[in-house]
Structure formats: structure tokens, C-alpha cells
Amino acid sequence: MWTSDQWKDYALLDCGGGERLERWGDYLLVRPDPQAIWRREGSHPGWKNCHARYQRSSTGGGQWVRRQVPERWTLGYGPLTFNIKPMNFKHTGLFPEQAANWDFAMERIRSAGRPVSVLNLFAYTGGATAACAAAGARVCHVDAARGMVAWARENAAASGLSGAPIRWIVDDCGKFVEREIRRGRTYDAVIMDPPSYGRGPSGEIWKLEENLPAFLELTAQVLSDRPLFFIINSYTTGLAPSVLTYLLETIVTRRYGGHTESRELGLPVSATGLFLPCGAAGRWVAD
Prior knowledge:
The chain is an alpha/beta fold and 287 residues long. Helices cover 26% and strands 33% of the residues. The protein has an eight-stranded mixed sheet with strand order 1-16-17-15-12-9-10-11. A five-stranded mixed sheet has the order 2-3-4-5-6.
């Protein structure tokens, strides 16, 4: 398991009973978590005295029950600063377990000894974009949701990266990659965080298990002659990390050499010393 254990402004304090108790800066939040199915043993006072709790509705969805939480606040990770905004479907605009991938990408970029270009697909609010730009890379940030791209730009500005070489693209990721292939544009690294399920701008249905292999084949065509790394994130329940390894090995390694490693991503739980699994990631790395 790759763990994100270098946070100072965030902590997973406890989890169990289908929920997690987290500290986001000065605020304690309780959110549902489908992985935390064990009985909650901790007695942290935050369970009763949290600043906000996301409560699911019996008819689907849910809502935040707030006490003393502002509409937005900031959270730091090393040189990066993120805007946190509790939003629909329990999200806050940041996945703290991804810090393990940010650290990995930043180290690879800084040690490359040459200019590096990164393509970040399904880029959400730009955690990986900010990390790669802070490490000195040129980044192309692509997401189909205009609001998420605007949020990512806010995060880059908060991190002191307003002048960094970042292209902000609002587009369907598949169509954008197809155009980049036609243009002959290439990248030294690719990061992708595709959804488990979604719909394209023309009503196309995306299912990760069905569409990821072809999309990976397509995206591999925009890798440069000397690629550095390729990261795939997956939050699809039941998709084993070894599946990501197999995909990257058969599509990327066969063409470029290098090697692939895939693991669960996890967060340390302060109350127990254990780790909460938070999806998986596959990393191809050039030798």
C-alpha cells in the first residue's frame, strides 16, 4: 500500500461503522466511507462534536449538516495550497490519499534533469497539476467540467503558480487526446483519474471496466520518445491493483520498456495505527 502520511493540515482521526472522522485544517468533518465496514472502536470526541457531518438520504444523495464550517477554507501540503469546499455527494474537492502520487510525480520530475511535460486527464481540482507544476513541469490540465477547471486554477493561484506553464482545457478527455494525436503533440508523463461511471457531452456512457483498455491504448500514443512515468488511479470497487499492472505492462511496457507497480492507496488512521484503503493506483516508470 502506498500511504499518504506526510500531511500536517489533514488527518484521518478515526473510521468505522461506514464513516470516517477527519481533520481538515481547523475543522472536523464526518463523511460516509463504504470501505470502513468494521465496528467503530475509537472514542474520539470529534464523532459527537464535529463541525459538519454528511448525512445520506433514504431516497438517495444526502446533505451536509453544518455547525461552524465556512463555505470554503484552505489546506496546505508542502508548497501546495488547496481550496476546500464541502460539496454534494460528500466530497470536499480534494482526495488526500493522492498525496502519495504527488510526491512520486514531483520526485520523478525534479530528478529528470531535463524539461518535462505532463498531461493530466480527468484532472478534477488539480492536485496533481499543482504538484507537477511546482516541481517545474509544463502541465496540460484537462477536465470536462468547467467548474472543476476553474477550481483547479484557484488552487494553482493559491499555491503561487499563477504564472506556471499550465494549459487549462475544458473538454472531453477522449476527444482531446484524439486531437493531440492528430496534432503530433506528445508528453513525457501522463496522469489519469478516470471515473468509474460517467456520461460524455453527447450522452456517451463511460464504464471503467469496459472503456479503460481502449482509452489507455489511445493515450499511450501521445507519450514522447523518452517518457518518464504513467499513473492511473482507480476508485472502482473490486478492480484489483494487479489489473492496472496488467494494463500498463501490456500497453506501455511492451513499447517503452521500464516497469510497472500497482498498489492500494491508503491513509493512516490516528486512532488505531491501521490504514484505510482509498482506491488503487498503477505506476509505470521508465528505467
